[in-house]
Design goal:
The complex is a heterodimer of chains A (about 1050) and B (about 100). Chain A is α+β, with helices and mostly antiparallel strands. Helices cover about 20% and strands about 25% of the residues of chain A. Chain B is globular, with a radius of gyration of 14 Å. Classes of the chains: A alpha+beta (about 1050), B mainly beta (about 100).
Chain lengths: ~1050, ~100
């Protein structure tokens, strides 16, 4: 198909480079430089989608980010299948395959359009009214079970791909003096004046080319040259000055302290996705100062049936015409409340398009515009509105009404046309200003919300603060760029800027920047500077068109302005929906928004919010500022998850910590579990073994011979200094001052509320040096807490704390043969029971390598924990493993570690405690050195609450049926079948099958538990209530005789 | 992301280097205290709307605890100062 609507000349498209593409499998041709939207329009395709709720035919309305209708699905392959892309921002590439969305079975024949017929049932608040369910239906659940699946199927735009995203996304941090957002006339001018001071400037823009509205200017002369050449010269100047120019880069988030998030599209516009070429890049920019030059968005007019394909925004049509050399149609009418639509009409006439009528809602449009239009043979109808449109799917004609002498509307002429251009005026894009937490203010004269006082280091320039004339906009850009650079400390007269720090951003400036200053005159403000700086900072602008004027909402007395007068095209919200919401009592715009879904579609109401606000205000009989404005939140336009995630996916999402034996364990086919950020081996099944057999074997081997266990995940803190012992006595419940070097002590750590938060063995290596161990999960917070007390409570203590968790590898050798294994491995050391008794610690140096051996047990057998520098861990592990196997020992994992310790009643903090358990509750009360003057948690233990007899205490549980293993977390009650609401006595905290005892064992926290030993209690489960006997929490070797073998 | 001026490093660094550590100027009762005083120390916080004195730790920098005056409405930190300094003494004023 030929491009019937393409002009022979002009535009920024490359006629020498035709591109093939398809829309709904129809082969079409466009040109390099096109967007999908402009290429479709060049082929006469306006009808591109169906609306969300009523499935009404919809066409291309806009030419940029504000497009509500032309959302398409673009499929490159099964994994790269992207829904909801705005055709107006999608750069055409060869082979692009786009599909329409939200229709079934096809765009032309859409059965779901039946929704349009039952529209009265789908009014405002439809979802809420439906899901609440009418009372006569009785069971609401049944109702929503019936409704929800049907609605869910009909809802949603586009299809998500089934396969994971194969693309690469980058992340980059940047700092700059001045970030300029938006490369239209104001942004370019701002970047020019900022860079002239020597400032480090970044200029970004969401479009493929920098230039903004200048890209569609064919008439204006700036400084005696065309807009295009002014733009090109300026951009060349910026590039030469080292300004970082970022096209295809959307500033989507403005965070605290001038921190910006930008999404740069790197390869979506290319026709092949070469593997390895990244798709998008997230820029995280900290800017000393920012200039927001994001322009304005043209508002649609709200009139009956204003949503037919062929109805588009006037300036969008002008963009298609001038930038892409595409005529929007053959016969055009215009309806406007704003000056800028006149220029669109005149440009159309210039290329030979017939403009049948220009209806201006204003009774007295500016005379020079009317005169110009008349000269071009465009009939102008003042005080005239569109009352009806016809044509399905594409527009075929309009009816009008004009205000008569008595002030009322009377029906006016009808026109046949295939295109209707509309312009309701311009809404300043205050999105980023609002995200900066600045408050927008209502400018009654301009009828617009414009940026108020800055709360961060930014200022808005140009159309985004309500300016409508190009000379003023460019001058505003120059002024703000210069101001931003000066405030960032950039001034060519100053040699060094090195003393400038980001403190200015961190603390805020004493200077309050008023964005509201009505400096739209184009005057040069306060510019003095070095010789190399241009002294003139305004532009001579000729033949510019005005963007003044506008209408918010509907003409108040327009006849029948409510039927299918759409405010939000994407979510199908009409004037009557908004009025219904107000009648039903929703008066806050935030409530109306959520009730009607106005402004909640993927375009976030870019074109609809202000119209909705005006309509709600009038219906509620309030002013617009009284109704308020909904909050703008990031992102400005949708951002892919890939961009946000960057490299943090798959294995890189959350770094995995592995103990030194990990790869050995992997090769041995170990079963693993994730414990916090660690991956640990649970057990090491032999050939044909299942997990329970493995656990039984490993358990028996440790108890009868010896086992080797990688305990490197234990937290380790080196506590050093003259006051180290004093410090530990204040942190832990235990005593350390009299602990001899070469001895260890089991320490319990409380918080100041008196509850157990960690435990571990602490060895005194030297009088001023302790090796403190913490639980695996406690390593970080224990050090943090120790530092807190050391730095802020007892800064007088002379102590250093160093985390050594990563520096020491720790291997536990446990079992009756443990000592002989060590003797075998370290023949040169004295590992005798006299030299290294239970709870002893020795530091040895072997071939210059420091080794710390603790004689400690977490199994109830004779045991050692050997610490070596992590770099020697592999060698030591291999040696220990051979020596262990030689004496018929085994390697064991966390499963058996748990069973062995539970058989001995050793608690695991965090499993057998829950943050409300005291040392006495877990049977460690005797360890508390109560006569110490202070330690963390001491005062709290004096509270009456802490010594109540019915506190939950650690006990053992033995099921009456020894084969039944209780569930951890199960509740314990006195009655087998307690009434609902009965509080539990406590809960099961640890539960295993003990191979050593040949029966199940459990630890539990039970109210007044120590007084209940021997009692029969119950663990009610869904199927049955399990009878258990309360027992002492030590099931094996209660006297600890095996430790001294 | 906040920029926080560490009063020990004397440099503004991004928030990710720091760890929040609760309200500042909560004194741990020394010596004898009533149960109520101890409960206050443990649990009662000002929960300010507006100016809030709070502790931060430059965990991934100098690892020191320090104090900051932050407005809970605007997130703006007007002042940071070393642990042990009175809030009025103010260390280095930025605002």
């Amino acid at each position: 198909m030929s491009q019937d609507f393409r002009l022979a000349h002009g535009g920024r498209v490359n006629r020498a480079q035709p591109l093939q593409f398809s829309f709904d499998d129809r082969a079409l041709q466009g040109l390099a430089g096109d967007t999908l939207a402009s290429a479709l329009l060049a082929n006469g395709v306006h009808f591109v989608g169906r609306s969300f709720k009523y499935h009404r035919p919809r066409g291309i309305v806009a030419a940029g980010a504000d497009e509500p209708n032309a959302l398409v699905q673009v499929r490159r392959d099964a994994a790269r299948d992207t829904p909801n892309l705005r055709a107006t921002q999608l750069e055409l590439y060869d082979g692009l395959a786009a599909l329409s969305q939200n229709c079934w079975p096809s765009l032309a024949v859409d059965f779901t359009a039946v929704n349009g017929l039952i529209a009265p049932l789908l009014s405002a608040g439809f979802y809420y009214k439906t899901f609440m369910g009418p009372r006569w239906l009785g069971v609401t659940r049944t109702w929503s079970k019936f409704c929800e699946p049907v609605i869910r199927r009909a809802a949603g735009l586009g299809q998500v791909p089934d396969e994971p995203d194969p693309d690469i996304y980058l992340n980059r941090y940047a700092h700059c003096d001045v970030l300029v957002i938006g490369a239209g006339p104001a942004g370019i001018a701002a970047a020019l004046s900022a860079s002239a001071t020597g400032a480090n400037v970044i200029l970004c823009d969401e479009q493929s080319e920098l230039g903004g509205s200048l890209l569609a200017e064919n008439r204006v002369r700036i400084d005696g040259t065309s807009a295009a050449s002014w733009m090109e010269r300026s951009l060349a100047k910026l590039a030469a000055a080292g300004v970082r120019l970022l096209p295809r880069t959307t500033a989507f988030g403005y965070h605290a302290y001038n921190f910006f998030a930008l999404a740069e599209r790197l390869s979506d516009h290319l026709d092949d996705c070469t593997p390895g070429v990244p798709r998008e890049r997230l820029w995280q920019v900290r800017a000393r100062e920012a200039v927001i030059a994001t322009g304005a968005i043209e508002r649609p007019l709200v009139f009956p049936h204003n949503d037919r394909p062929g109805i588009m925004l006037a300036d969008a049509a002008r963009t298609y015409l001038n930038r892409y050399a595409v005529r929007p149609g053959a016969r055009v009418t215009v309806t406007t409340a704003c000056d800028s639509a006149y220029r669109a009409a005149l440009d159309l006439v210039d290329v030979g398009v017939e403009v049948a009528a220009l209806c201006d809602t204003r009774e007295h449009p500016p005379e020079h515009l009317v005169e110009e239009a008349r000269k071009a043979n465009v009939p102008v109808f003042a005080g005239t509105i569109v009352t009806r449109t016809r044509g399905r799917p594409r527009l075929r004609g309009i009816s009008t009404a004009s205000r008569t002498a008595n002030g009322e509307f009377a029906s006016g002429p009808s026109f046949d046309c295939d295109t209707l251009l509309m312009s309701g005026g311009w809404t300043p894009s205050v999105h980023l200003f609002s995200q900066s937490r600045g408050r927008v203010t209502w400018d009654a004269e301009r009828e617009a919300y414009i940026p108020g006082e800055s709360v961060q280091h930014e200022r808005s320039a140009g159309a985004c603060r309500g300016l409508t004339e190009l000379d003023a906009i460019i001058a505003d850009g120059y002024r703000t760029g210069d101001q931003a650079a000066q405030l960032a400390g950039c001034n060519p007269s100053r040699e060094s800027r090195s003393q400038m720090k980001f403190a200015s951003i961190a603390g805020g400036s004493t200077e309050v920047v008023h964005n509201t200053s009505n400096d739209s005159s184009g005057q040069v403000i306060g510019l003095t500077g070095g010789n190399d700086r241009p002294t003139c900072r305004s532009a001579k602008v000729e033949l510019a068109s005005s963007y003044a004027g506008g209408l918010l909402g509907t003409v108040s007395d327009a006849p029948d302005a409510k039927t299918k007068s759409f405010v939000d095209f994407q979510n199908d919200v009409s004037v009557s929906d908004l009025e219904l919401a107000v009648r039903e009592g929703f008066h806050s715009i935030e409530h109306v928004k959520r009730y009607t879904t106005v402004g909640m579609a993927t375009d976030q109401g870019k074109s609809s919010n202000l119209n909705a606000l005006a309509i709600v205000a009038r219906a509620a009989k309030r002013t617009i500022p009284e109704v308020g404005l909904t909050t703008f939140r990031q992102p400005y336009t949708p951002v892919t998850f890939g961009t946000l995630a960057g490299a943090a996916r798959g294995d890189l999402l959350d770094p995995l910590r592995c103990p030194p034996s990990h790869f050995w364990a992997l090769a041995r086919g170990a079963v693993f579990e994730d414990v916090g950020s660690w991956r640990r081996a649970r057990c090491f099944p032999g050939a044909g073994e299942d997990i329970s057999t493995t656990i039984a074997r490993e358990c028996r081997t440790v108890r009868s011979a010896v086992g080797l266990f990688d305990a490197s995940t234990l937290g380790k803190i080196e506590v050093v200094g003259p006051d180290a012992a004093v410090f530990l006595e204040r942190m832990y419940i235990n005593r350390f001052q009299k602990l001899e070097p070469g001895r260890c002590r089991y320490g319990v750590l409380l918080n100041d509320a008196g509850f157990v938060i960690d435990d571990g063995v602490i060895g005194r290596i030297a009088p001023d040096r302790f090796h403190v161990t913490t639980t695996t999960g406690g390593a970080g917070h224990v050090l943090h807490r120790m530092e807190d007390y050391l730095q802020t409570e007892w800064p007088d203590l002379d102590v250093w704390l160093t985390s050594t968790t990563e520096q020491w590898a720790t291997f536990a050798v446990q079992g009756p043969s443990a000592r002989s294994v060590l003797m075998d491995v370290f023949p040169e050391l004295d590992i005798s029971a006299e030299a290294l008794p239970h709870m002893g610690v020795r530091e040895f140096t072997i071939d210059g390598i420091c080794v710390r051996i603790f004689a400690i047990s977490f199994s109830g057998e004779v045991g050692f924990e050997i610490n070596v520098p992590a770099s020697y861990a592999g060698a030591l592990w291999n040696t220990l493993e051979k020596a262990t196997v030689k004496v018929h020992g085994c390697i064991y994992g966390t499963d058996v570690m748990h069973v062995l310790r539970a058989e001995k009643g050793y608690v695991i903090v965090g499993q057998d405690t829950d943050g409300t358990i005291t040392a006495d509750d877990i049977g460690l009360g005797r360890m508390i050195a109560r006569d110490k003057s202070d330690f963390v948690g001491k005062r709290a233990l004096e509270l009456e609450e802490m010594s109540r007899a019915d506190r939950r205490q650690l006990v053992g549980l033995l099921t009456e049926d020894p084969a039944v293993v209780l569930e951890e977390g199960a509740q314990i009650t006195t009655a087998p079948d307690p009434r609902t609401g009965t509080s539990a006595l406590g809960f099961v905290s640890s539960s295993y099958f003990s191979p050593t005892l040949g029966r199940s064992i459990a630890l539990a926290l039970v109210s007044g538990g120590r007084g209940r030993v021997g009692e029969r209690v119950f663990v009610p489960m869904p199927k049955e209530s399990i009878a258990v006997k309360v027992a002492e929490p030590v099931f094996y070797d209660p006297k600890g005789e095996r430790l001294s073998v | 992301m906040l920029l926080i001026e560490c009063p020990y490093c004397n440099e503004a660094r991004p928030e990710v280097e720091f760890q929040y550590a609760g309200e500042a100027h909560i004194t741990r009762p020394a010596g004898a205290s009533t149960d109520a005083q101890w409960a206050d120390y443990l649990y009662v916080r000002s929960n300010s709307r507006g100016l809030h004195y709070e502790r931060w730790r430059h965990t991934h920098g100098c690892a020191r605890f320090f104090n900051a005056a932050r407005d809970t409405l605007t997130d703006r930190i007007s002042n940071t100062y070393q642990a042990g300094q009175a809030r009025e003494s103010g260390g280095r004023k930025i605002l």
